[in-house]
Specification:
Elements: H1 3-17, H2 23-27, H3 29-41, H4 43-55, H5 64-81, H6 89-105, H7 115-126, H8 134-145, H9 159-174, H10 178-192, H11 196-212, H12 220-247
Amino acid sequence: MQPIYHQIRQRARQIILRHPTPDFYRDHTLADETSKRLFDSNPVIKKLLSFVAKTLEDDFGHGLIHAVKVSHDAGSLICIEVRHQSYDPDRLSRLVCLVQSAGLLHDIKRKQKDHSTRAAARAKILLKKYPFSSEEIRTICRAIQNHEAFKESIDADTPEGKLISNSLYDADKFRWGPDNFHDTLWDMVSYFNPPLAKFIDGYPQGMKKLETIKKTFRTATGKKYGPQFIDLGLAIGEELYAVIKTEFSGYL
């Protein structure tokens, strides 16, 4: 990454600190803690995490940090969405395991065209080595295949499969908020290494794309909290854009 981008990234992170944490984490502390506890304690997830840590490429903005955050939030969404149902704790843990597995694997083909389909195909082969039934593998792979925005999703086989698919999608799109300007954008800049003038020329279009995500959330919880993630990202992005145009104008 060019030195100028390190400076801009630092300014972005300073801006983020002045903005509030999304309400999702304040309102659903228990679900967040439960998801993280299950993530840390499940031997299947530990094994998958080790695989992903060795194979997922961080330099495209969707590396290990992204995958873990998506997995945590997807697990939280499952816990929230079923909280008023009489779920056996073991069954709930299994659903969280399935969605967290999908979260860890959803971007393993991120650099390839139609990466969601390719990631699902790779996951289908990989997961045969793990203690999942054929139905569970199909559920995980369908969720992975459905995680891209602005693409028609494929119907899940069961209500639980649909919940897992939608939870993965929403957790992935939560990252289009503050996380986009904390890590993702700079990892992509590091990979593509564009001149600053080209970066700033494409900035407004990128902001418009962020705006369009607000209406795509799929779970009830995602529809409630997702737009705030995006609004925070937009506010941070607009402030950063002004900073680049003033403090770094000499580089344009």
